[in-house]
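Model it.
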Amino acid sequence: MPGASQEPLRLAGRTVIPVDTAEAYLRYARDAGRPDAALPVLAGDWERFRTALAALPTVARISRRPWHGSVFVCDEEYAAVAETLAAATGRPLVHAPFQAALAHGRTEPVTVVAGVSAVTPERIAAIPSDARVGLFVTRTPAAASALVVRTLLHGPAAAESRPDLSFDAASAGASAPGRLMGVHVTPETLREAIGPGVAMLTGRSHARDCVLHLNGGGICGRAFEDPVATTGLPDAAGFREHPTSCQQGQGCWRADVEVGEHLRAAELRAAFAVLDGCRLAVAGEGAVRADVSVPLTMLENSAVAVTVGTGIRKGVPNAGPLFRALTRAGLPLGEALAEVNGVIDTDPDAMGRLVLFGDAGLAPVPEGTVHRVRCSPDGAHIPARAEAVLVEGGPVIAEDTDGPVVLTRPDGVSCWALTTAAGRLPGRVVAAAPRFDDVWARRVSGWLDRLGMLETVGVAGDFGVLDTVRKSAEQALHGHAVAVRADESRAAAAAFDEAVRELARFQTRLVAGEVDWIGTNFSGYADGWRRPWVVTTDDELRTCPQCGARTAADHRVRPAAGAAGELLHLICSRCGDVLAGSRDFDVTVEVLLPSEVRRGTEFTLGVVLTAPADRAVYVSAGAAVSNEPVVHCKLAATTEVELRPGERTTVEFTGTSDARLTRPDQHPLRVVVAADGAVRCWTRGLWLRA
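Modeled.
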């Protein structure tokens, strides 16, 4: 029962009552589901809590509409607190291990109730990016009981009665009402902008463990006004729970500011906060002690939920505004978290995740709805809204620089568009040019490398073209990555496509040059490799692809005294040179040639090409009879074809001989095939009979 100096508080049709023992708290917890039941708070600084709660906007009645998902308790010391939260909101209560909560959180919002010791960096790191999990974590059960009451009474009321505020200390730009930017983000300006309180505070800056940096100070996580620890500081074990310099009485580790110049996390009068900075998700056994954790300190004061970065956060600078816009559109906090982390995962320039401290099942704007638009071939208009807009119909991009911010979801075919929440104007979005960074990494970069190696091998060609192509492709990659307008995106994609076309043209010119060279002398492709060679011959014989006998030896050749990459040279004791070129060759090649042809008649050489199953490939192919003028034959020709993944096609070359001048004998034909920069030459014999 409350003491004489601990007067209960009447709010939302409920009596908020202080209790002195865990047993008394449990008795009230079991009745918390009744509409008129009292809400217990474990004894602590009751008058401070009572005064602070009375000053906050609260609901008229506790409704079950804002609440979603389940409540999991993973720390039995906090079971009664979890029971109060679950019963008052009409959600199921589950006693289960942390991993079970994470698994369930991939299907619906899960609020994990536990103390700091149960939420270690190992467990935070294990939270999947698509998990709708909130860590209802405090330093003490008393703090948890107070957070339950604040969550129930203030959580569903704050968004309706208070404005939002955003800041970005890591970006330049002009500040505006409700938005602080760059050098204007200081402890003083932020304190003034928050004023009596905001609903959603979203901020971005550099951070570490106990502080989010601002200009001239930071948001400091210390729990008490006096930062010096009042109890003995144990020796830190390894990288766990190091005492900060302020706890040792040595001032802030940031030697450029005094401790008192910081804005304490306890001062941030925000119901919901997203602080997007590195390493702020501190609970138990972190790099610093839990009593300087920014989110935990905020949850012991006026905050209902705090979302912070874990590990190193990079990219997606509008993660905080997206979170805010999603909650304004009616999503529960856990759903908003999963959407934001999905966007971070999808963005190739981003890393890290956000972690939610608070109730994942709370929808701060339960009546909110997600506005949907479909992008037609002509685009779609995004109106000015505080809420996020879901754009369906493929990846899109804004037409204008000041237009909507577009953030791609993991499905790759829908996006979130932000206007007001990101300080942008309404405007049109249109279909974005497809990304091609994967094409560069998996195909084009290696293609350039393989063709470039041929210069070291000794193949003739204007290899300076490759430098130009590489620079053009790299510039296009960068241009597409930083494009904020549709025309910039399309121009970058067109430049990349042109670079690839020029690469294909160079490859075909290279093959044509080899074919012309073969057609004017008796040398083969390998004879042009730069000497001296470093040769290793396999002891085990292989089947000759021409005569079919096990008479071929594989010679591993490194031209240019070993400076060039290793090449294949397959030589048959019956047929001689049968295959030479790149050891790795993804295209399957079959040479079709009649065994003999009457001289003076046409003959057809077929080359069957089969692309690998997992990617497209550009093939340049040519064929020639060795020293055509001398043997009075004509075949030399080149062609090119782009194969889709797994595609099979046949290219044909037609040759002729002279009925009188061509000698009736076996004549070597050579087929040169280049596939995305890998080059091979097949030698086959054709009998021309009288």
